[in-house]
Amino acid sequence: MGKARRGPVAAQVLDTIPLVWERVRSVIREASTGSLGVTLEQFHVLRHIRAGCGNATELASRRQVSVPAISQAIDALVAKGLVTRAQEEGDRRRVALALTPLAAKVLDDKLDETRAWIEGRLASLDAGQLEVVRAALDSLRLVFGGPEGTA
C-alpha cells in the first residue's frame, strides 16, 4: 500500500483504537474495582500473572513500568489475598508469583463478563462485518504485536 493510502489509515487507527480502548477499559475498571477491590493497574498485574508472567521483573517489562512500581502493586495484591509468592526452585533469589484460587475464579468471571459486554457491542454487526473486524484485528496484531510493537 502506498504512503498516500497509509496516511488516512494511520489517522483512523489513532482515532479508533483509543475510543475502543477507553470503552473497554471503563468496563474492566468497573469490574476490577467492584468485586476485586483493586486498582486498574493491579487488575492488569493479575491478568499478566494469569497469562504466565511469573515474577516482578517480567511483569515490569510487560507493563512498561519500574520494578518498584510493580513490587508495590504485588505487595497490595498479596495483602488482599489475591497473589502468593514463593521462591523459585533453582534460584532462591527469584520469587515466583501465582494467583490464589479466589483471584483466579473472580478474574475468570470478570473477564467473561467483559467478553460478554464486547459481544453485546458487536451484536449489531452482520457476519460480513464481523469478519472484516476479525481480519482487521488480525492485521493489527501482526503489525503491533511483535517485539517492536511491545517495546
Give your account of this protein's structure.
73% of the residues lie in helices and 10% in strands. The protein has 151 residues and is mainly α. It has a two-stranded antiparallel sheet with strand order 1-2. α2 crosses α4 and α3 (56-63) crosses α4. The radius of gyration is 18 Å and the shape is globular.
How would you briefly describe this protein structure?
With 151 residues, this protein is mainly alpha-helical. The chain is built from seven helices and two strands; from the N terminus they run H-H-H-H-E-E-H-H-H.
Oligomeric state of the chains in view:
single chain
For the CA atoms, what is the radius of gyration?
18 Å
Mean pLDDT: 86
What's the number of helices?
Answer: 7
Biggest sheet layout: 2 strands, antiparallel
Count of discrete structural domains: 1
Shape: globular
- How many beta strands in the DSSP annotation? 2
Largest beta sheet: strand ordering: 1-2
What share of residues is helical? over 70%
Estimate the strand proportion: 5-15%
Name the CATH homologous superfamily: Winged helix-like DNA-binding domain superfamily/Winged helix DNA-binding domain
If classified by CATH, what would the architecture be?
Orthogonal Bundle
- Give unreliable regions as ranges: none
Blueprint (SSEs and pairs):
Elements: H1 3-36, H2 40-50, H3 56-63, H4 67-79, E1 83-88, E2 91-99, H5 101-122, H6 127-144, H7 147-150
Keywords:
single chain, 151 residues, mainly alpha, Arc Repressor Mutant, subunit A, two-stranded antiparallel ribbon, 2 strands
